[in-house]
Amino acid sequence: MEELSNLSSSSDAVILYFSHDACSVCKVLLPKIKELVDTTFPKLELKYINTMEQADIAASYQVFTVPTVLVFFEGKEYFRYSRNIGIHQLEEAVKRPYQLLFSE
């Protein structure tokens, strides 16, 4: 938990993906989010948190439903999406702060 807390505060951009093995929607969504991060936002770090195995971490981030996606830029939570998450919605939300942070 300490490592995750340090990551979200020390890394420039992080996505925390909260899920568990019994969630069928989560299993379909995770590869799509991985592909989005790999192709469109390569400097964004993606971390998976299993809420069944790491319930204390989920509770500390006030995550009580899956799937939940938290997006952090420079240690601050910018976006939080739960249950009905659209890839295009996530992409559009992340695009502007990502470009501002990583534009050369």
Protein architecture, described:
The protein contains four helices and four strands; from the N terminus they run H-E-H-E-H-E-E-H. The protein has 104 residues and is of the alpha+beta class. The protein has a four-stranded mixed β-sheet with strand order 2-1-3-4, with helices on both faces. The radius of gyration is 13 Å and the shape is globular. The model has no long low-confidence stretch (mean pLDDT 88).
Give the helices and strands, then pairings:
Blueprint: H1 2-10, E1 13-19, H2 24-40, E2 45-50, H3 55-60, E3 68-73, E4 76-82, H4 87-102
Parallel strand pairs: 1-2
Antiparallel strand pairs: 1-3, 3-4
- Give the N-to-C terminal Cα separation: 33 Å
- Total helices: the number is 4
The protein's oligomeric status is single chain
Largest sheet, described in full? 4 strands, mixed
Please report the total strand number as a whole number.
4
Q: How much helicity do the residues have?
A: 40-55%
**What is the alpha-carbon Rg in Å?**
13 Å
Write the element-wise H/E pattern from the N-terminal end onward: HEHEHEEH
What topology, given as strand order, has the largest sheet? 2-1-3-4
Low-confidence stretches: none
The residue-averaged pLDDT reads 88
Beta-strand content bin: 25-35%
Question: Can you give me a brief rundown of this structure?
Answer:
With 104 residues, the protein is α+β, with helices and mostly antiparallel strands. Helices cover 46% and strands 25% of the residues.
Keywords:
alpha+beta, 46% helix, single chain, 104 residues
